[in-house]
Amino acid sequence: MTLSIDRNDYVKAQAMRNSCGISTLINTENLAYTIDRDSGLMQAARQCPSPNQNARPGDCDPSAIIVHGISLPPGEFGGGFIEKLFTNCLDWDAHPYFDEIRDFRVSAHLLVQRDGAVVQFVPFTQRAWHAGESQFRGVPRCNDYSIGIELEGEDNTQYANNQYAALVSALIAIMQAWPNITVRQIAGHCDVAPGRKSDPGPAFDWLRLYDGLAGYGPQTS
Fold first, then answer.
1. Which domain holds residue 178?
2. Whose CA is closest to 205, among 171, 168, 170?
């Protein structure tokens, strides 16, 4: 779905959204992220290093971006539990759900919180453990070559305006640092692990994301 939107369908959907008074504008005016390719770090993002990372095979450059949605406990926002999970500091007994993910070792390169704040856990030059068993356009093991961005949210809850603004700004910075990554190389977790994962879910507005990235590569495959 996210990789094969027909341009005519896109335009029709835009017209319908506008007629319903749904804003598609994303204000990134006050957001400016830059990336140091050598360190793989994004300036203006809060750094919170995760131990759940390792080298990309062959020191390959990232060539795809996977968008995720996460909330801990499910459907609840805030509380710092995601950060604690990604840094192996989560108290497994703090909530009944946590027992289901006990001893998970996972991470992402970035987390975009509900207020639009961005946290970086893994340098882009390193492999984060975010996609699991997956493939993108027939190429398996997405963790090897992708950048994982988690949005604090869940499948059926609307994502926040500030999150779209921060996500667009982060994506533009990534595409500027690695020009081989275009809009066509952005997918949802649900696309690379269909049947196993559903995030970022139907609540995520892909058309709104494409609007924000207009001018940074083709919108259709």
1. 7-212
2. 168
Nearest to 165 by CA among 220, 117, 217: 117
Share of the chain above pLDDT 70, in %: 83
Active site residues: 150
Residues 200 and 31: their CA atoms lie apart, in Å, by 23
Determine the Cα–Cα distance for residues 151 and 67; give it in Å rounded to an integer.
7
CA separation for the pair 76, 22 (Å, rounded):
26
Task: For residue range 11-46, list pLDDT tens digits in order.
Answer: 334 444 443 343 444 455 556 799 999 999 999 999
Q: Structure tokens of 137? A: 């356009």
2 found inside a domain = no
Non-local CB neighbours of 44 within 8 Å, separated by 6+ positions: 31, 32, 33, 34, 118
Please tell me the distance from the alpha carbon of residue 65 to that of residue 145, in angstroms, as a whole number: 9
Q: Rounded to a whole number, what is the distance in angstroms from the first to the last CA of the chain?
A: 11
Is residue 19 included in any domain, yes or no?
Answer: yes
Q: At 95, which CATH number?
A: 3.40.80.10
Beta bridge partners of 78: none
When pLDDT is averaged across residues 126-143 and rounded to a whole number, the result is 98
pTM: 0.86
Does a structural domain hold residue 218?
no
Tell me the two tokens of residue 156: 């059926």
